[in-house]
């Protein structure tokens, strides 16, 4: 407690100075969208191995907009974020520089940029959470969501959230724009209610009986089952089980958490060292165990809890290709007025 | 204030010229409809709640009336986003009401019983109205206290019932006060980001946010932002039209103090019940739910989180508050003085900044501040071979700038009122004796206005503590305030973890309410 107070007072005194221009060697500056609970163990490991100290600025929405506005003055070396849209968006806006570490080879080609502008650091699958009580199906496909059987039973967060844009873009990459338009229209009309809230909230709707199938990312199951601060979330999670869509066919859609090196990074060498460490077996294991995500390096195993939900057969469509359809996906969501819910 | 708006207008035109306005075409109708609907509902509900409660406490006496008279403004301490979070917790499947329903009926899931879904446009309108009605209440109450009772007395003498008097005299006369209050409530609706996101309402502000942040489409967001500024312009015109009437009404001096009719029996309890329900719904439930959640999740982490977010919040509130009050004092001296370098029209325009949503200000400021930083650094590099870094966009200066824009009206109106009341005689005497402008400021303005300065600073401080959207988007990276901590947690369904910081916001919000109850209410509007 005392430490926190001291730390916040220190933060307080620097409030009105500029972002400290910490460009010395032996340091690396991180802009992170990822939370401290996950990042701290990784950075501790990094410091131990390389002696490089990491300065982290934890930020929320709008991280890329900030980076863009800061331009060449930005102190950021490495940016850690989630979602393929943010990674590709950073590249498109010229906010990246090529990652040069050989460790990049550890990442399957589908999950990194072909020019090294960004790389995935962990994977998360966008899967179905179905009611244990009201759903019997053991195998399902994304296409099933459009069938009569699911009328009034599906729930998801708003369609323009990056996770859903990622899913819809992947459908376009897999089946084409027209088929996806029909599919999304049917899914919209099968929704139990107009999309609202976040991923965990959808699982709660399974518990309360208003929804039978929620489209949610995998790791939330682990986060809810282990939530000691709000133990009632364990009940939410226990009402549902995970079904991996298209597990036997083309594979389940995966999205990524990843990182890139900032275009104007003052410590590019250290930035590469950090990426190299984050792709090491040790760091990949931390991703798997702390956050119940899938390691992006195939030789590292997911957490036991994660494995208990089933086997991930990830879609092999390169993420670059998926990302190319994001604009169309967003357009579809608007055009179909997906966020207004069923319209039949 | 002009900078962000002009920047957005340029961005909007730029995007339109580039032909990328497909977005406005698809999203604008929805956004306009949902925003209009929400504003209309909030305007209507706050008008009814505020008017009726103000009418009751000024025209009648009933049990606990004196308590209600000040307590009815308590909901102002609850920011709209907290109202949304707490009401969802309260009415949700796992909240106390539905638990009770299930316990009584033996039902297991929502398939077995019907319960209204609060996460809708209507739900949002009701919840927002419950914490925004005090704007109308304060305006109407002040109006009733100012208004001569003679008309009412005349009507009653002629045999009209209390209700008839209300509909044929009170209601038409108080229309300007209602419009003033309801306009302020509706502006809060336009400004709100946290609540509409949580309720899933696709309001203009929510869509501006997602267009900019989720889709990285600055041009599209700028187009929507320009639309919102135009809508606000219309609202302001309506509000000023109403204020004009109010000046006329308050200038008559044939005043008969209002006589309170004592209510008895069922009618007394009816009045009591109405006020009590309103108070419970607007303050009791949010505050109770917060306290409950905070106690339930009271762990060292929660305390640490509150402290680490609270320290920067308070610092921002103090510095931003002082700055805004200093500018307000300057502006008030200008508008009350013999005329200075700044024309009065410009000051009036500057005080309109309170009407521009924080999201829009952030959208319009981020890029120009970044550019300014770049120019400053290039200049210092050329002159001194030294780069100061991100002195504007990377520090709290950006935020203080936004706060000054948004809350100048609060400090200016408070100080302006105090200066009018004090008059000019002392200043004139000082000038005649040859004192300089600075000496007048130091020896006369600061000492005589110190209570007003203090209350203006308090009001701005609280507004800054409650402010969410601009702080969210412009805060120095790595710094969290109470409001942004609560927002981030609530958005990943971890609101209970942030209940303690949220409670801190409400407790800080209570400060001006408590202060205002001493010299009499009505400062806020």
TrEMBL record, chain A:
InterPro entries: Ferric-bd
Gene Ontology cellular-component annotations: outer membrane-bounded periplasmic space
Swiss-Prot/TrEMBL keywords: Iron, Metal-binding, Signal
The organism's place on the tree of life at top rank: Bacteria
Signal peptide limits: 1-23
Record-linked Gene3D superfamilies: Periplasmic binding protein-like II
A UniProt-annotated Pfam family: SBP_bac_6
Keyword Secreted attached: no
Keyword Signal recorded: yes
Binding-site list for Fe cation: 219-220
Molecular function, one GO term: metal ion binding
Similarity comment: Belongs to the bacterial solute-binding protein 1 family.
Protein name, per record: Extracellular solute-binding protein
Organism of origin: Arsenicitalea aurantiaca
TrEMBL record, chain B:
UniProt keyword annotations, A-Z: Cell membrane, Membrane, Transmembrane, Transmembrane helix, Transport
ABC transmembrane type-1 domain residues: 32-239, 310-516
GO annotation, cellular component aspect: plasma membrane
Subcellular location: Cell membrane
Keyword Membrane annotated: yes
Superkingdom of origin: Bacteria
Gene Ontology terms: biological process: transmembrane transport
Membrane is among the record's keywords: yes
Entries under PANTHER family matching the protein: IRON UTILIZATION PROTEIN, MOLYBDENUM TRANSPORT SYSTEM PERMEASE PROTEIN MODB
Protein name: Iron ABC transporter permease
């Amino acid at each position: 407690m005392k430490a926190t107070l001291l730390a916040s007072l220190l933060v307080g005194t620097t409030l009105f100075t500029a972002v400290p221009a910490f460009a010395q060697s032996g340091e690396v500056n991180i802009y992170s969208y990822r939370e401290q609970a996950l990042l701290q163990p990784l950075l501790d490991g990094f410091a131990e191995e390389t002696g490089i100290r990491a300065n982290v600025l934890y930020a929320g929405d709008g991280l890329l907009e900030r980076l863009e506005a800061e331009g060449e003055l930005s102190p950021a070396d490495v940016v850690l974020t989630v979602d393929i849209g943010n990674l590709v968006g950073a590249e498109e806006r010229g906010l990246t520089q090529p990652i040069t570490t050989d460790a990049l080879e550890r990442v399957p080609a589908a999950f990194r940029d072909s020019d090294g502008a960004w790389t995935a650091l962990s994977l998360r699958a966008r899967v179905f959470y179905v009611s244990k009580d009201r759903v019997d199906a053991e195998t399902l496909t994304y296409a099933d969501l459009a069938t009569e059987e699911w009328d009034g039973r599906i729930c998801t967060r708003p369609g323009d959230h990056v996770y859903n844009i990622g899913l819809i873009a992947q459908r376009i990459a897999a089946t084409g724009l027209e088929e996806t338009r029909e599919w999304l229209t049917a899914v919209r009309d099968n929704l139990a209610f107009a999309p609202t809230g976040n991923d965990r909230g959808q699982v709660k709707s399974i518990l309360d009986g208003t929804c039978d199938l929620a489209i949610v990312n995998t790791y939330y199951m682990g986060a809810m089952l282990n939530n000691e601060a709000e133990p009632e979330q364990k009940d939410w999670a226990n009402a549902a089980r995970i079904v991996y869509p298209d597990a036997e066919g083309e594979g389940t859609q995966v999205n990524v958490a990843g990182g890139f090196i900032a275009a104007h990074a003052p410590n590019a060498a250290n930035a590469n060292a950090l990426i190299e460490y984050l792709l090491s077996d040790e760091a990949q294991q931390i991703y798997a165990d702390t956050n119940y995500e899938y390691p992006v390096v195939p030789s590292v195993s997911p957490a036991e809890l994660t494995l208990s939900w089933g086997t991930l057969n990830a879609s092999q469509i390169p993420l670059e290709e998926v990302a190319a359809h994001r604009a169309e996906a967003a357009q579809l969501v608007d055009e179909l007025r997906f966020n207004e819910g069923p319209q039949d | 204030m002009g900078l962000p708006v002009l920047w957005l207008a340029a961005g909007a035109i730029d995007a339109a010229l580039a032909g990328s306005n497909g977005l406005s075409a698809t999203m604008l109708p929805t956004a306009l409809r949902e925003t209009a609907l929400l504003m209309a509902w909030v305007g209507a509900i706050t008008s009814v709640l505020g008017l009726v409660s103000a009418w009751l406490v000024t025209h009648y006496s009933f049990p606990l009336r004196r308590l209600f008279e000040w307590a009815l403004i308590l909901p102002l301490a609850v920011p709209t986003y907290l109202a949304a979070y707490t009401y969802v917790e309260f009415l949700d499947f796992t909240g106390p009401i539905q638990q009770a329903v299930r316990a009584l009926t033996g039902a297991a899931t929502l398939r077995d019983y019907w319960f209204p879904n609060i996460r809708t446009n209507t739900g949002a309108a009701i919840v927002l109205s419950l914490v925004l009605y005090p704007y109308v209440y304060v305006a109407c109450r002040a109006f009733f206290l100012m208004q001569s009772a003679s008309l009412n007395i005349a009507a009653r003498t002629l045999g009209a019932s209390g209700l008839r008097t209300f509909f044929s005299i009170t209601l038409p006369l108080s229309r300007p006060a209602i419009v003033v209050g309801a306009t302020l409530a509706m502006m809060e609706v336009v400004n709100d980001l946290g609540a509409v996101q949580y309720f899933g309402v696709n309001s203009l502000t929510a869509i501006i946010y997602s267009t900019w942040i989720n889709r990285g489409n600055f041009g599209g967001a700028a187009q929507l932002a320009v639309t919102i500024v135009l809508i606000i312009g219309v609202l302001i015109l309506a509000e000023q039209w109403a204020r004009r009437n109010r000046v006329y009404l308050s200038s008559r001096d044939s005043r008969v103090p209002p006589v309170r009719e004592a209510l008895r029996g069922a009618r007394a309890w009816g009045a009591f019940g109405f006020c009590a329900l309103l108070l419970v719904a607007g303050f009791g439930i949010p505050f109770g739910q917060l306290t409950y959640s905070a106690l339930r999740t009271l762990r060292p982490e929660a305390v640490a989180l509150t402290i680490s977010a609270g320290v920067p919040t308070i610092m921002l509130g103090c510095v931003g508050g002082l700055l805004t009050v200093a500018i307000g004092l300057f502006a008030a001296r200008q508008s009350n003085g013999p005329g200075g370098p700044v024309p009065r029209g410009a000051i009036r325009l500057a005080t309109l900044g309170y009407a521009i949503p924080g999201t829009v200000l952030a959208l319009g400021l981020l890029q120009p501040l970044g550019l300014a930083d770049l120019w400053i650094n290039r200049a210092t590099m050329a002159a001194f071979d030294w780069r100061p870094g991100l002195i504007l966009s990377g520090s709290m200066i950006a935020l203080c700038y936004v706060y000054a824009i948004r809350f100048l009206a609060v400090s200016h109106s408070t100080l302006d009122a105090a200066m009018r009341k004090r008059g000019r005689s002392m200043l004139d005497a000082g000038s005649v004796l040859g004192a300089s402008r600075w000496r007048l400021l130091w020896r006369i303005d600061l000492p005589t206005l110190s209570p007003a300065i203090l209350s203006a600073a308090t009001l701005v401080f609280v507004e800054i503590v409650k402010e969410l959207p601009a702080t969210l988007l412009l805060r120095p990276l790595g710094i969290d305030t109470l409001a942004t901590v609560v927002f981030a947690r609530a958005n990943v369904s971890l609101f209970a973890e942030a209940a303690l910081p949220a409670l801190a916001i409400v407790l800080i919000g209570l400060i001006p309410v408590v202060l205002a109850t001493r010299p009499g209410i009505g400062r806020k509007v």
